[in-house]
Write a structure and sequence with these properties.
Blueprint: H1 6-28, H2 32-59, H3 66-80, H4 82-94
Length: 95
């Protein structure tokens, strides 16, 4: 199955991972040692899921805020002025 859409891949991942996890939980809970590992691992799973979601949202953030537009405009304007570009380069190199 060739899935080209990135959002469709994410949707499949978000549906299939919990489904597989829930399908294996009853089998794991029959063994006391496996149940202990499962109880400890769920915190790690939640943290990893939160980190992945945060990374995904950060990567797809469009930056439509007013501050973002002002910053982009300042960068474009600064590139057109040689003195501004030199000052910005000097600041970046000495920071």
């Amino acid at each position: 199955m060739d899935i080209a859409s990135g959002s469709l891949q994410v949707a499949i991942l978000l549906v299939s991972t919990p489904a597989i996890f829930l399908a294996t939980v009853p089998r794991i809970q029959k063994t006391p040692k496996a149940r202990l590992i499962l109880e400890r691992a769920r915190y790690v799973v939640v943290l990893v899921a939160a980190a992945l979601l945060g990374a995904y949202l950060y990567a797809n953030h469009k930056g439509d805020s007013y501050e973002s537009a002002v910053r982009d405009g300042a960068v474009v304007a600064c590139l057109k002025l040689a003195a501004c570009k030199a000052a910005a380069t000097d600041y970046a190199n000495n920071r």
